[in-house]
Sequence to fold (1087 residues):
Amino acid sequence: MSQDFRLESVGLVNRDKKLSFKFNGKKYFGYEGDTLASALLANGVHLVGRSFKYHRPRGFFGAGVDEPYAIVQLYRNNETEPNIKATEQELFEGLEAKSVNCWPSVNFDIGAINNFLKIFLPAGFYYKTFMWPKSFWYRIYEPFIRKAAGLGVASTKHDKERYEHKYEYCDLLIAGSGPSGLSSAYAAAKNGAKVILAEDKPRFGGSLLTDDVNIGNQSGKDWAEGIVAELKTMPNVVVKNRSQIFGYYDHNMLVMSEKVSDHLPKTKKYHPNKRLWYIRAKEVLISSGSIERPIVFGNNDTPGVMLSSAAKEYLKVYGVLVGKNPLIFTNNDSGYETAIEFQKHGVQPTVLDSRKNPESEIIDEAKSLGINIKNSYVVVAAQGYKKVKSADVASISDDKKQLGKIENIKCDCICVSGFWTPSIHLASQSGNKTKFKEEIDAFVPGISKQQETTLGAANGVFSLEETLQTSFAKGGELSKKITDNDNKVSIPNVVEKKSSKHDKFWCVPLPAGKNYKRFLDFQNDVAVSDIEIALREGYRSIEHVKRYTTLGMATDQGKTSNLNGLQLVSEIENKVVPAVGHTTFRPPYTPISIGAIVGREVGKHSKPTRKSPMHAWHEKNNAVFVDAGVWLRPRYYKRGNENLFEGSKREAKNVRTNVGVCDVTTLGKIDIKGPDAAELLNRVYTNAWLKLPVGKARYGVMLREDGIVMDDGTTTRISENHYHMTTTTAQAANVLSHLEYYLQLVWPELNVNVVSATEQWAGAAIAGPKSRVVLQKLFPNLDVSNEGLPFMGYMEGDLFGVKARIFRISFSGELAYEVNVESDYGNFMWEKIMEVGEEYEIQPYGTEALSTLRIEMGHVAGSELDGRTIPYDNSLEGLVSKKKDFIGKRSLQRSAFTAKDRQKIVGVVPLDKKTSIPEGSHLVKDDKAPLPNPKLGHISASCWSVEYDNPFSLAILKDGKNMIGEKLFAMSPLKNKVIPVEIVSSHYVDPKGERVRS
Amino acid sequence: MLYIKCPHCGMRPQIEFSYGGDASVKRPELNKEISDKEWDDFVYNRKSLRGKHLELWQHISGCRQWIKVERDTATHEIFKTFKADEEVV
Fold:
């Protein structure tokens, strides 16, 4: 198909590279350098979607980030992405896109029936209609609304693209590469400042690409190209296109999304799809320009009605005519500039100007070109359904209240200019207190909160000469402060046409007897009448009006609608616009891919993975791994077809009867040194530490200041002033911070140093009745007898040439030892243990068997030390010193903690000795009691006792101390189980603790 | 994201730090008899200040030192940072 609306040799697209693409299944051609929007317009396609609420036909309204209509579902390299603006998507070979929000097709959309029902769909319709009956919400209303509303469809597949994050620091960050951005960047770069210049579009230059101006005896476009080329050669400057600064956060940190690959058919190897830049800038210059505002009139959402600046951009950048019989409707001189471009390229436009007698150089030029101009004329309504066919126009009285006789004139597009709205989003996000500038009917930045300056059109300055002067000066001044260089740059001569004042006119009155929809917000179908209803119903705050009517919401966040909405509210309320105020600007400025925000922290990269030095051995020996915090630990070592239950039972049984070995490297280890080390331990732990001899270990419990158990573990006195503390795997980092807190802030007088040694030591727990003979074989020269190395003893040894630490401590409740060697020798140690243990039937055991062993011994772990229990609850009150003070001791006097029926740990056995009790089950007195059944306690951990071969659980139970022997019910609504149980001692196996001392 | 001057390491981004609460809270001395009220005030009761606030941060991914930061809770402005043992002026 030919590109009927493409002009010969006009624009910046590459005519040598023709690209084919598909839209709604139909094949078209465009050129390299096109956007999807410009390529469709070149082919005369104006109907691209359906509106959100009424499903009215939608075309193109803008040519960039402000686009409210042309949102498509994009298909690229077998992936799909929803809600892409056709005006931003660059064309590539093989691009495919589809319309969104229409069914069965954009040409025939069943939802368009809403358009005829619009009288029943006013503002707040959803709120009012779907409120009752309440039970209808989930079953009927919500599914219906979900089906009828919404834009594109997110892919349910895993995103194969890669996204990167980058952190950068600079002196000046400049947002926007229009005349202001280029000037300030150039001046700052010449002073040697580190500059980042960001442009969201593919081409640099901003308004210079389309405006008929002359800078330093060159066209604006050529001047921009020269500056960019020079900036790119400077080592202190980073120049980025396709890069949108979308958020301005605290302490001058801004975030920018760089589209690295979206303009290509496929992401190149080793390239990310997008790169998110976190930029900390000393100074930020916001040169984000301005967005043209529409004038509101009847049916102003018809395809073919668009911003006059967009029509000019399509013509000048892409060589595309948005129509061949254009009608221009303006309240200022910008409309004339578009008209002049049309006229110069052989298309005769008609200009309707709401002003009575405007005079300016631009208007003179238009007149001299013979353009048909009608003053004090307005468009009353666009006519045509899927495309503008004509316009009802009329003269308007000076007070803009009375319309003259309505005439109909033929046209195929209506280009609207209602003057310009500065893009103050970034400034406002930074905390800038914006102010209303009467002369331009818009808000501009006011007092800065952060190191931020807004320049050019974004600051409401529409004269090119003034923009260049202030921007060169500001770029020079700010960079001089940072670099101390003062290389003066001469400001080039500017030739521009002077414009006249715009008309403070933004909405065409309805003619008598007509009820045209006059849209304010194009993406959400919010019309003038909707705002009127909201105000009539008592909504006053602009934030409430926004939420009730959806004005300024959705993906374009009201870039083209906000100010007209404010104008309307201020008119009805009889207030000035600044008194109404604007809604809050929040990041992101425009939608950003979730993938870019997440970056590379997906899947297994969402957190670090820590592996012990013995990991490869575990893998080789069929370990099934489990996440333990960030660590990967063997859960059990699978033999044959064993499942978890069978495997862990075998391993636990082997520990009880022979000997097993468990990788305990993951335990937190803290090295504590200094003359006051004992004193520190004495204050941190609940029990006494001052008299622990060298070469002995002790079990300790530490509390938070609120009396809740924080962690437990053993600490060993290695030498006079040197201790080795172990913590649980989960709490290792917190315990270190806790110790540092007290040493640095509370008791700085203590002469102690603490450092994490978790990764320095590999640990193996050797447990079981035969563990002593295994240890003896490992250390043949040591006396490891019960007298030589008693329970809680410590010694150092030589493990086949490797220095080792040997602790006689036990978590399994069996005779057990823990051997530590430096991490690099971990695997060596492990293999030696397996080697010498072979004749004693040693088996490795994983965390599941480890749990079984500790549960049936009644040893507490994370599921009991759950941030809600005190020492008493865990039967650790014997470790709480009555003599000395320690962290959290005073809290133990709280009345709840000393209550007679305080909860306590107990053992739980099912009466049938068969049914395992799900962890988390509640213990209740009466299984038939009405809900909510009073809960007496909960099951904290469950196992299959290998000692007695029946299920056994631990529970934290109210008045647990006096409940031994009671019969209760364990209820698990989740598992739908009610299990009659008996309460027993938590020390189910070896209650006297004889084995560990044997 | 805040930009915090660690008195030991210099300007560092917030992700390197962890927050530690009100720095003006003093732990009661060990072995001292105190009322329930005094203890509750130390453990639980905090003011939710709007404005200038002296707070603790730990440079957890850096030098691991606890520092004091004088920050405006409303604007996030950081006025000054201090070492743990430094007199706050």
